[in-house]
Amino acid sequence: MYTEKNISKATSGISLWQMMSLCVFAGIFFIPFTSYEGISFLGEFSKESSSIFFLIAGGILVLQTILTKSIYIPYRNILFQILLLLFSWFLISNILNLSDIKGYYFKGISGPERFIRQYAVVVISGILFFLTYLNVFQRYSSEELFFKIRKIISYSMVVVTSYAVLEILIIKFKFSFLYTVLELYNFFPFVEVGLDYNLSRISSVTFETPALATYLFTVAGWMFSYMLTDKGIKAFMPGVVTIVIAVFSDSRAGLFVIFLQAVVFGILLVRQRKYHRILIKIIGLTATVFLLIGVFKGRDIANYIGEQVNSFEVKDDQHGISNRSRFGIQYASLLVFLQNPVVGVGYGQQAYEARNMYPAWATKDNWEFRLKYLNFQDSSFPPGYNIYTRLLAETGIVGIAIFLLLLLLILVFSFDIIKKNDSRYLLAIVIFTSMVGLYFNWLKMDTIRVFGFWINFALLLSIVGKTNQVFLNKQND
After folding, report:
1. How far apart are CA 69 and CA 65, in angstroms?
2. What span, in angstroms and rounded, lies between the C-alpha atoms of 348 and 395?
């Protein structure tokens, strides 16, 4: 084991490192490609095509560690120490609740088995994959990392965008003849073409609209960053395209979070005088666009906003069932927390206790509970729909406090690098913007298996110790 001071020690594993790097970057490219059937034995990772590449890269890291007896682990970094503390508490919370967990059984899975499955996801995502990313990123300079990863994400977004445009034309504008063109994407790896004619929502190469929204939150900062490195219309197009896809996806949270990320990105630019001209252009362009839209499409936009706001109601025709399920499960998680406020019921155990606490207003005439969440014939566990309420229920006030401390310090460290305005500035502003989006995304999903979070976390730790004060004003990739 070695630290920052002797990272250059291992040179014998350079070919393995190159293979590992190739797999990591390929995995980043394939993050959105989840619309295929999947690989069942991978469990929660079954539909994540990128996990195939990350698992291979992780295997190479283990092999390289055995051969060279060297691996980069930032054990002195406070962020990594808090991460280990969080994962340790996940384990401790189950040990403290072991007498109850032994008696849990639901949908053919016992409490201990459920913990093993869920903790495996934690170890794979937050230890194996995270250290793999970190060991690859650590060998690049901040500028190299920024431009390399952005180029990979941009190529991936080209595919996501082209597919989404065809979806929009077919579903929204009824250009059904284009479906033949869309079918060509079946030849692309990990993609199975399918359209949501029922809800008229787009999902591009992901398996569902919320998954597309999660991906957009992950890449928004990268797309906005073109405004800092390019000139002319091509500097704004990536960000505009990201926002347009979010609008047409009809994701209830997608548009709000993307807008929030754009605001955060703009606020961060205020600190840099040299970007004030760009910021003024952005504000001017945005104001002009909104003015024109308001003049010609004001009534339609008002109706659209009203529909999106009303879509969160439990009586909404289109989203009412989904909303009642989501809010009902979150409400039950809070009830579980109130009964077990300090240590929770154990990591992964929320559903065993919550299934007896779902409120009647959520379950009555709700087919999702009848056919999925409370149906013993359906093997899938009820989702928690919110990482924060889930951790409250499963790990108590101790667990959520550690988790929130980690999230806060990630933003603090990122902002501190941004203030220094050195060679790490571009990467730090992207990390900060991306993390804000992913934090809000966790209000609607409960899994710690979010590739964007761990990749950004690894990027942050890879540049925390680098203090090169030379800022490269590179204009393009």
Report:
1. 5
2. 9
Q: What is the pLDDT of residues 248-297, one digit of tens each?
A: 888 777 888 988 998 899 888 877 766 667 777 666 666 665 566 555 54
Spatial separation of the C-alpha atoms in residues 313 and 60, rounded to whole Å: 49
Residues in the chain: 477
Cα separation of 435 and 300, whole Å? 32
Residue 109: φ, ψ to 5°: -125, 130
- The C-alpha atoms of residue 35 and residue 194 are separated, in whole angstroms, by 8
| Amino acid occupying residue 38 | G
Residue 57: both structure tokens together: 């890269």
Map residue 106 onto helix, strand or coil.
strand
- Measured on CA atoms in the order 463, 467, 472, 473, is the torsion positive or negative? positive
Using CB atoms within 10 A of its CB, is residue 109 exposed (0-12), middle (13-18) or buried (19+)?
middle
Task: Identify whether the C-beta of residue 350 lies closer than 8 Å to the C-beta of residue 395.
Answer: no
Q: Which two tokens stand for residue 424?
A: 């790490």
Placement of tokens 């996940």 in the chain: 90
Distance separating alpha carbons of residues 168 and 159, to the nearest angstrom: 14
Our CA angle for 261, 267, 273, nearest 5°, is: 140
Q: Is the pTM of this model over 0.85?
A: yes
Residue whose token pair is 């899994």:
447
pLDDT digits (tens, 9 = 90+) for 209-243: 999 999 999 999 999 999 999 888 888 899 989 98
Confidence category of residue 470, pLDDT binned at 50, 70, 90: very low
